[in-house]
Amino acid sequence: MSKIREQFQAGEGELASSPEADPKAYEVFIQLTRGQPHVHTGTVDAVDDKMALEYARKHYGRDQACVHMWVVAREAMISAGYGDDIIWPLTDQDYRLARGYAADVRRKWEQFRSKEDVDRYQKEDIKDAF
Amino acid sequence: MSAGVTSSEELRIDWKIQEDPDRMAAFQAHIDAKGLVEADDWMPHNYRVGMLRMAEHHANSEIVGALPEGEWITRAPSLRRKLALVAKVQDEVGHGQMLYRTSQDLGKSRDQMLRDLVTGKTRYHNVFNYPAPTWADVAMIQWLVDGAAILNQKSLAEGSYGPYVRTMKRINMEEAFHFKSGEDMVLTLMSGTKRQRQMAQEAFDRWWGPCLMFFGPPDRESTKTGPFMTWRIKTATNDTLREAYVDRFAPAARALGLNIHLARKNPDGLIAVKADGTPDKIEDPLIRLDESTGHWGFTQPDWDEFYRVIGGDGPCNKQRVALRRFSYEQGRWVRQAVMGCAGLPPSRN
Predict the structure, then answer these.
(1) SS3 call for B109
(2) Which domain holds residue A101?
(3) CB contact under 8 A, A22 and B104
(4) What are phi and psi for residue A84, nearest 5 degrees?
(5) pLDDT (tens digit, 9 = 90+) per residue, B240-254?
C-alpha cells in the first residue's frame, strides 16, 4: 500500500476551512457517429469554458466512444415546455401528419387499383412517418 | 436554476408537511403512469429530500468505494489487470461526479456534500467498511459487490426521477465492464493452483455476508421502503433484491467450487480463528434450491453486525473517512487555485 495511506494525519471534528462555492454547471451533448444528432449525456461542473470542455472530454468522451461534443454553460441555455407551457398544440393536427391521411388515401386508391397494385405502389412510402 | 447552498434544516424528511392536494394528486398520477420527474418540475418536499438523500448516499458510496480497490493498483498482478483496475477506479470516481451533479440540482451544493461526508454527517454504503487484504478480494469485490450493485441499479433505473434514471443507465454500462472483469478474475483464480483457489475461497467468505447486507435491512425493519416505493424512488424491496441475488450467485459460486460459509468476523473484518487455529466458519446449512419455490435458501446475515458497522464501528470506517478528509483538506489549495481565489489570476471567463 502507498505510504501516504498509512502515514497521513487524520483530522477530526468540524473542518477548519469555510464552505466553498461550487463551480458553474455545463451541459454536455455528444454525437456517437458523424451524421447522427447530438444527444444530451450529462453535466459537468467547471469554472470556465476551457475547463468545462476538458472535463467533458475526459469524463463523457472517455467512457463512451463518440466523435464530437457540444458543451454549453447552463446559464446560457433557454428552455420551454412542460406544465401549462404547451409547445405542441393539443388540437387535432392530423392534417399535418402523414398518418392523418393514410387510411383515407388507401381506401380511395382501392377504388381505382387492385390491392396488390396499391401495396406495390405504397412500398416506397416512408413508413417511419406513420 | 442554481439551487445554491440550502441549509440542512430544509433538507430533512418531514411527513407533517401539508402539500397542495391538487398538485400531490397530479404528481402521483404522473408517477403512476410511469412518467418521469425532471429537475425543474414541481415535486413534494419529501420526494425531493428522499431522492437527494438517495443520490447523495450513492455518490458518497462511489467515491469511498474507489478506496479499497485503489489500494491494489500498485500491486496488480499484470499490466492488463493494472490497466483495468485503474479504469475501474476512475469509472467509480466518475460515477460519483455524475451523482453529485444530480444531487446538486436537487438543492445541496457539492461542497456541502463533501464536507458532510468527511465530517461523518452523511454516510456511504456499508459494504465499503470492510477490508480488501488480498488480490482475491479485488476479484470478489468486482464480481460480488459490483454484481449486487448492478442488480440494485437496474431496479433504480426503473425509478421516477429522470436525471437519476439516466445516470443509472450510464453507470450500468460501465458496471457491466467491472462485473465481467471481476468474473474473469474469479474464474482465473478458481482455474488456478490450490493456493489461488484457497485465496479465492477466503475472500469469498469475507464478502458473502456484506453482500447479503448490501440490499439493506429486512423489509420488516426498513422504514423508507413504503413511501419511497409509492413514488418509485425505490422500485424493489430489499428482500426481493436479496433473494434475486442469492438465486444468481449461490449456484454460480458452487459451480466454481466455492463453498458458502457462515463465518464469524473479528474486529478487523477478517474471519475469526478458533482455539485450534482453524477459521471459525461452517457451511451454510440452508443453501439449497427449494424446488417448490424455485428460490435458493440462505441464512440471513448477522444484522447486529450490520447495524454496528453502519453506526460507525466497522473494521475500516475511520480509515475510509479519514482518507477522504485528508484528500479534501489537502486539495483545498488546488480548488482555490482553480477558482481563482488564491492570489492567482482569475479564470478566463
Answers:
(1) coil
(2) 94-124
(3) yes
(4) -80, -15
(5) 999 999 999 999 999
